[in-house]
């Protein structure tokens, strides 16, 4: 089942021509150099105070690809009833603060990632493949990273996923009052195969609902 969504007034979609490249980041630019993952975005938001409503941002390169639907560099960006569709690295939030309200975000691996402080309010997070929902790179001196409040996580049949893993040591995310499916691994998050990350990363859950076999984790990692 695909997540329900409101009627969207505009759909932005990008289908890159691979030229034989397995991943979009490997496609050569006009100067003959690989694009790199940040430059695969369907939409690039550079300015502060950007706002969008009822827009679908989609990267259609395909299953298994590192391809961004959106990359946000600006501060105070807001998104209302928008959809962000991709596979890996769907939404890159590089800096500043962002607010997502009643949005849908789909992906499989690290599909919400970056260094921003971002609040996701009443959003649907839909896992189309097994992997990790978030990969935060929160700076050490930032009090908050990604906060999910009153959201719903759903997953395709047979999919399993972690809530996140730390892209950088001080990664921060919190899931508050969020509905979680059986697809979420019992341990909640993964340390990116580096136990040292557990001393610095800040991962928390509060009053979320989950199947009985998956106990909630109050907090793991460094406390402020």
Describe this structure in words.
By secondary structure, the chain is mostly beta strands. It has one domain: Pectate Lyase C-like (3 Solenoid). Helices cover 0% and strands 39% of the residues. The strands form two sheets. Strands 1, 2, 4, 5, 7, 8, 10, 12, 14 and 15 form a ten-stranded parallel beta sheet that branches. Residues 17-21 have low confidence and may be disordered.
Keywords:
224 residues; mainly beta; Pectate Lyase C-like; ten-stranded parallel β-sheet; eight-stranded mixed β-sheet; 18 strands; 39% strand; globular
Q: Assign an overall shape.
A: globular
Rg, rounded, reads: 17 Å
CATH uppermost class: Mainly Beta
Tell me the span between the first and last alpha carbons: 40 Å
Please state the average pLDDT score: 86
SS summary, helix count: 0
Main sheet overview: 10 strands, parallel
**Which architecture would the CATH scheme give at its second level?**
3 Solenoid
N-to-C order of helices and strands: EEEEEEEEEEEEEEEEEE
CATH superfamily: Single-stranded right-handed beta-helix, Pectin lyase-like
Give the percentage of residues in beta strands: 35-45%
Low-confidence stretches: 17-21
Number of domains: 1
Helix content: under 10%
Secondary structural class: mainly beta
* Count of beta strands: 18
């Amino acid at each position: 089942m695909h997540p329900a969504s409101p009627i969207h007034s505009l759909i932005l979609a990008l289908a890159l021509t691979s030229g034989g490249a397995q991943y979009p980041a490997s496609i050569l630019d006009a100067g003959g150099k690989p694009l790199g993952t940040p430059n695969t975005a369907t939409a690039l938001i550079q300015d502060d105070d950007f706002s969008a409503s009822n827009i679908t941002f989609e990267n259609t390169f395909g299953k298994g690809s590192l391809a961004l639907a959106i990359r946000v560099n600006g501060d105070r960006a807001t998104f209302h009833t928008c959809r962000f569709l991709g596979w890996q690295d769907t939404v890159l939030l590089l800096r500043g603060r962002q607010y997502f309200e009643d949005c849908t975000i789909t992906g499989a691996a690290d599909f919400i990632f970056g260094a921003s402080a971002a609040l996701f309010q009443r959003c649907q997070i839909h896992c189309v493949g097994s992997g990790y929902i978030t990969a935060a790179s929160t700076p050490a001196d930032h009090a908050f990273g990604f906060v999910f409040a009153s959201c719903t996580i759903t997953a395709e049949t047979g999919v399993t996923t972690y809530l996140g893993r730390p892209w950088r040591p001080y990664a921060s995310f919190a899931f508050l009052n969020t509905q979680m499916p059986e697809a979420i691994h019992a341990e909640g998050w993964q340390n990116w195969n580096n136990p040292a990350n557990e001393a610095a990363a800040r991962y928390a859950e509060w009053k979320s609902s989950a199947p009985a076999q998956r106990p909630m984790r109050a907090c793991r990692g460094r406390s402020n």
